[in-house]
Amino acid sequence: MDSRVSELFGGCCRPGGGPAVGGTLKARGAGGSSSCGGPKGKKKNGRNRGSKANNPPYLPPEAEDGNIEYKLKLVNPSQYRFEHLVTQMKWRLQEGRGEAVYQIGVEDNGLLVGLAEEEMRASLKTLHRMAEKVGADITVLREREVDYDSDTPRKITEVLVRKVPDNQQFLDLRVAVLGNVDSGKSTLLGVLTQGELDNGRGRARLNLFRHLHEIQSGRTSSISFEILGFNSKGEVVNYSDSRTAEEICESSSKMITFIDLAGHHKYLHTTIFGLTSYCPDCALLLVSANTGIAGTTREHLGLALALKVPFFIVVSKVDLCAKTTVERTVRQLERVLKQPGCHKVPMLVTSEDDAVTAAQQFAQSPNITPIFTLSSVSGESLDLLKVFLNILPPLTNSKEQEELMQQLTEFQVDEIYTVPEVGTVVGGTLSSGICREGDQLVVGPTDDGCFLELRVCSIQRNRSACRVLRAGQAATLALGDFDRALLRKGMVMVSPEMNPTICSVFEAEIVLLFHATTFRRGFQVTVHVGNVRQTAVVEKIHAKDKLRTGEKAVVRFRFLKHPEYLKVGAKLLFREGVTKGIGHVTDLASLCNQHVPHQKSHS
């Protein structure tokens, strides 16, 4: 991690923003779009057949891995060829974890050839047959003309193929929502999930608040979850038409779970916990057009960078500002994104074609940062954000997912409830393995370092019943009559075979992002590691007596209250007032109790 990220935590941005990493990448509309390549994907070549200068004749060459497939044409294939094409589609769907993109009229080397209307119609008919064979649906994302010296117009068609994997109920994508207080985070989520525009006075956000004081103040202080579904044809499925959460899950083939986080600095610890514990796939950073980068916006941006969470930006409240004010806010964002600590390439989204390109490039390159400008009151450009979310593919590949599922079960406990007639319920994320109804697990560590036996009675995902939970999925688990007093946030539920390692002392390699004076032995900070959040004291700084802003070192920490379950290599973030730092755990074995006793449940 570049230590210059500390600039985002330790003060205001300097005018000019430092050397630019590149200009704003503005996706072009039909006839000038590089549909699935990053900014480096446009190649100049003499074989442009007289194409216009703003219509590059190449896409990046087709990759063997990934969910993007190039096809020049699919006209009347033989039966053998058809079966091969079906097998190829299954592979691309597996790589995209249920989603694939077909570029029709493109050669394998990326040359944009295009097809005449009759050939394109026949190719799409074949693609539809292939999708039916594997149980998938297809949606035409866009058609673009290729301007060659030819009397017959030639087109390229981009098609989304979507199929819910056999072992899942729907595709799932978790999006953390960040931004300064009063930037419109809860209002935007209310508009997206309820299907009704806001009245300008916050009516859309009322259904999202969990506490009375949130309704009275209009400010989120806790973590809440909202869902937005898309069916196989890309149509929005939300709470409009009096749907319930169960009906949304049943009607959707893709589900976006928004994690609504607090914007006020007083609740920063809650925001950090949401980012570290719930493992979002990406983050949505909301910036108010009339205030620009203010309050905690810069800090939230720094957190996303420090934790390596990909993010895109939404500029809200454009209905309150003149066009020049919106443009000034966008330019301000571009300057910050191009700073050495960020190394991002801004991509302004102004059309549906831009939204398709942005979704594909965002998934392929961690440096691309799409920027949307919209209004939750007038609905301006709201559809562009929906198109983006519908097309946005999973950001982890199928191989990583399979590796996680083959490991032993590990479930992070983030929330604890008591539900009448159900008993104790815990919410969290399954970080590895598979969890089924009836599984016997152990939960801990307790204050004395023990793990207690328990049984998973039932599982729910997005408020609907689920029999099997797989790595990377968030859910709530019912534990029957297990004593709630024995549980706390930060515990883990693991397979008894794992023999988990716990520790009170650990070492980490850190970068001090910001500190007003010097960071010394004896300093107390709040440490965040995954779902663990506890105060720790600095016992030793190796090879140094003290640290200043931007410096690196290996530091030994000791938890003050009770031992925790940690793993070597886990990302770490610590804070205390304005002091902040990041790093990763480097040593546990020499400092920890390796053999953890199991005890019978005291339920």
From TrEMBL:
<protein>
    <recommendedName>
        <fullName>Tr-type G domain-containing protein</fullName>
    </recommendedName>
</protein>
<keyword id="KW-0547">Nucleotide-binding</keyword>
<dbReference type="InterPro" id="IPR050055">
    <property type="entry name" value="EF-Tu_GTPase"/>
</dbReference>
<dbReference type="InterPro" id="IPR000795">
    <property type="entry name" value="T_Tr_GTP-bd_dom"/>
</dbReference>
<dbReference type="InterPro" id="IPR035531">
    <property type="entry name" value="GTPBP1-like"/>
</dbReference>
<dbReference type="InterPro" id="IPR027417">
    <property type="entry name" value="P-loop_NTPase"/>
</dbReference>
<feature type="compositionally biased region" description="Gly residues">
    <location>
        <begin position="29"/>
        <end position="39"/>
    </location>
</feature>
<keyword id="KW-0342">GTP-binding</keyword>
<dbReference type="Pfam" id="PF00009">
    <property type="entry name" value="GTP_EFTU"/>
</dbReference>
<dbReference type="InterPro" id="IPR009000">
    <property type="entry name" value="Transl_B-barrel_sf"/>
</dbReference>
<comment type="similarity">
    <text>Belongs to the TRAFAC class translation factor GTPase superfamily. Classic translation factor GTPase family. EF-Tu/EF-1A subfamily.</text>
</comment>
<dbReference type="InterPro" id="IPR009001">
    <property type="entry name" value="Transl_elong_EF1A/Init_IF2_C"/>
</dbReference>
<feature type="domain" description="Tr-type G">
    <location>
        <begin position="170"/>
        <end position="398"/>
    </location>
</feature>
<feature type="region of interest" description="Disordered">
    <location>
        <begin position="15"/>
        <end position="64"/>
    </location>
</feature>
<feature type="compositionally biased region" description="Basic residues">
    <location>
        <begin position="40"/>
        <end position="50"/>
    </location>
</feature>
